[in-house]
Design brief:
CATH superfamily of chain A: P-loop containing nucleotide triphosphate hydrolases
Largest interface: A-B, 37 and 37 residues
Low-confidence stretches of chain A: 1-5
Order of helices and strands of chain A: HEHEHEHEEHHEHEH
CATH class of chain A: Alpha Beta
Strand order of the largest sheet of chain A: 3-2-4-1-5-6-7
Helix content of chain A: 25-40%
Distance between the termini of chain A: 40 Å
Oligomer: homodimer
Radius of gyration of chain A: 17 Å
Number of domains of chain A: 1
Mean pLDDT of chain A: 93
Shape of chain A: globular
CATH topology of chain A: Rossmann fold
Strand content of chain A: 15-25%
Chain lengths: 219, 219
């Protein structure tokens, strides 16, 4: 089965680069999070609201992953009001970010200026979970409009994340979505998952998330 | 670049099987659609509502693709009230269906009983677009809660589809979503795209979709 061997070699090579990135960033005291979700769950909006709250407190770098367009990096730069170092990666078809892409993007960021690095992955609940990027922490974002069966249907994403954010709480009155069911499903897969419930539209829950992000996560 | 060669070989092998499936189904007069979307855009609900409307008019087979669980196949069987031949494929981690999976699933369906075969792909706006399954037509479902930038950010999915369904119209009052912008983006990528706007919750637009599905699509 040569194709399996090659896939394993590619993943092993990726993990080696990811390990080097993690060491580099840890040596500089930079916390790194890898944010993942379905397309449209609200990753970029979460980052906009997070950056608006934190930009005076600490230096932030953002690596934006998209298949095409630089629209998200432009949104992040606007939210940062000139204070956030932002790099856009366009994968031109690839369904996930890989560690070598992060290594290249880091050459564009002045690491002496930041203590938090945020990587926004491609919108995809499947493939990104297999690829380490050198992050300290993985954050999976789900939203109340995408059905309350996602942890059971995409378990690997929840098994490999440390944080789950349930977004779009403001739309709960208009959809059939049981937040408790989602939390139960996710915790059955990963009992250590830290869960935040937020609305990026109203701001509900965002202060708790930001406070935790600055103060509590593992280094 | 051996890994690229192997990827091409895998895709070419897939296309060969897909071609055989398409011939087999065409010879029996069975129309086949491949339904794709982000996780949670409403594929399964669209199929439930479609089957409820059509189950008296024609024989329907459904192949449900999921990484894990048989929850969707159970929903389809309930919607079909015993009239729909349903097969669940669990990919155990794979991010898309492949033609050899469809070939295996077809062995479980009595093809003499059906004239419409619906394949529900894995929830993923990226990878499924590269894999032919023997379908006559690809249907991409987007929803009003996932942001109105999806065609621009995931162009390959829209370039290779024949139909786009905009779902969750009932939630438009509560979200920032410009349907006309999405349609413009999608048509710029693929001017031949047939577009339906629906709400699977209220039923709006579903009769037009079902009438077209039965009467107008290419054989």
């Amino acid at each position: 089965m040569p194709k399996v061997t090659i896939a394993q070699n590619i993943l092993a090579a990726n993990d080696t680069i990811a390990g080097e990135i993690q060491q580099l960033l840890a040596a500089r005291g930079i916390r790194t999070i890898n944010v993942m979700s379905s397309p449209g769950a609200g990753k970029t909006t979460l980052l906009e609201r997070t950056i608006e709250r934190l930009r005076g407190q600490l230096g932030i770098g953002v690596i934006e992953g998209d298949i095409e367009t630089s629209a998200d990096a432009e949104r992040i730069e606007a939210a940062g009001a000139g204070t956030v170092e932002t790099v856009q990666i366009n994968t031109r078809g690839a369904c996930h970010l890989e560690a070598h892409m992060i290594r290249a993007a880091l050459e564009e960021i002045d690491l002496t200026h930041i203590s938090l690095l945020v990587i926004e992955n491609i919108g995809n609940l499947v493939c990104p979970s297999a690829w380490k990027l050198g992050e300290d922490m993985r954050v999976v974002v789900v939203s109340t409009t995408e059905g309350d069966d996602k942890p059971a249907k995409y378990p690997q994403m929840f098994a490999t994340s440390q944080v789950m954010i349930v977004n779009k709480l403001d739309l709960l009155p208009y959809v059939d979505y049981n937040v408790e069911k989602v939390k139960r499903q996710a915790l059955a897969i990963n009992p250590h998952l830290r869960i935040f419930e937020v609305s990026c539209r109203t701001g509900a829950g965002l202060d708790a998330w930001c406070e935790w992000l600055v103060n509590d996560p593992p280094p």
